[in-house]
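A.,

Following up on our hallway conversation. Structure tokens first:
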């Protein structure tokens, strides 16, 4: 598969995986392996450097995966910027998934606070990947602010409802000059495949893998779906048509019917009448 370029790094995988809700650390680690992802998101509030035995990072090979700490829990720009600074001071690097979510019920991101935080963090040297509503205008403004990607939601976080924002995501993909990573709401491998067929550069999946009956197999299924969707997009998917169009030509049909027709229990004359009525 062709490589995904974000800022100054290239990745073979176009599947990003989150680390929440897995039944255990070992299952999460095995699922990450099966997904063949190269970018792993982790909530800063789940990092516990003081107690390594309880630290989620102990299950992630940081030499193998690019760590993408997120600012989950931040309710405004000020809190998001503070979490970003804490992540950098903890040695988690400059890459950051920016999340600003003030509403605990629907978990929808705040566009204004996200934009304010993005402007500050990009000036401070962070590589910012903002999680946003599927808003083409906001996506453009965040790109102009220096963000490395945009990450429009497909549906509310953890809902598994699939590409509910399909039409506006399509506009974002059409207009974007940075990679578009479809995030949140993807419930099945077919959702991921569809997003990739639309031209998304990557997808981020967490809950759909973590809560599956078999997270490891589901991680593999998502890997295959993302690869299939990307290959389909690159191959050029046919356009939709309102009417039917036969896949085989009709040109030779008169020649095929020119010999005397044989109908069980009938005669050539009867066959001719049937042909005239359009029954053959």
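Then the amino acids I'd put at each of the 280 positions:
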């Amino acid at each position: 598969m062709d490589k995904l370029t974000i800022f100054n790094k290239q990745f073979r995988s176009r599947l990003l995986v989150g680390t929440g809700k897995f039944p255990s650390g070992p299952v999460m680690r095995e699922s990450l392996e099966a997904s063949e992802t190269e970018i792993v998101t982790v909530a800063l509030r789940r990092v516990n450097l003081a107690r390594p035995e309880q630290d989620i990072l102990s299950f992630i090979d940081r030499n193998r995966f690019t760590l993408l700490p997120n600012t989950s829990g931040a309710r405004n720009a000020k809190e998001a910027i503070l979490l970003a600074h804490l992540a950098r001071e903890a040695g988690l690097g400059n890459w950051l998934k920016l999340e600003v979510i003030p509403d605990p019920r629907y978990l929808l991101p705040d566009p204004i606070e996200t934009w304010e935080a993005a402007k500050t963090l990009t000036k401070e040297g962070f590589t910012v990947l903002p999680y946003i509503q599927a808003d083409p205008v906001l996506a453009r403004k965040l790109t102009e602010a220096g963000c490395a990607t945009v990450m429009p939601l497909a549906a509310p976080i953890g809902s598994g409802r699939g590409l509910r924002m399909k039409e506006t995501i399509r506009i974002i993909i059409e207009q974007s000059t940075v990679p578009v990573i479809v995030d949140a709401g993807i419930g099945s491998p077919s959702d991921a495949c569809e997003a990739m067929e639309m031209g998304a550069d990557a997808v981020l999946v967490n809950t759909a893998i973590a809560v599956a009956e078999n997270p490891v197999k589901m991680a593999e299924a998502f890997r295959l779906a993302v690869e299939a969707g990307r290959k389909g997009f690159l191959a050029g998917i046919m356009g939709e048509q309102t009417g039917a169009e036969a896949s085989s030509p009709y040109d030779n049909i008169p020649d095929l019917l020119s010999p005397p027709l044989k109908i069980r229990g009938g005669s050539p004359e009867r066959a001719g009448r049937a042909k005239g009525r359009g029954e053959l």
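The mean pLDDT is 88. Curious whether your intuition agrees with the design.

B.
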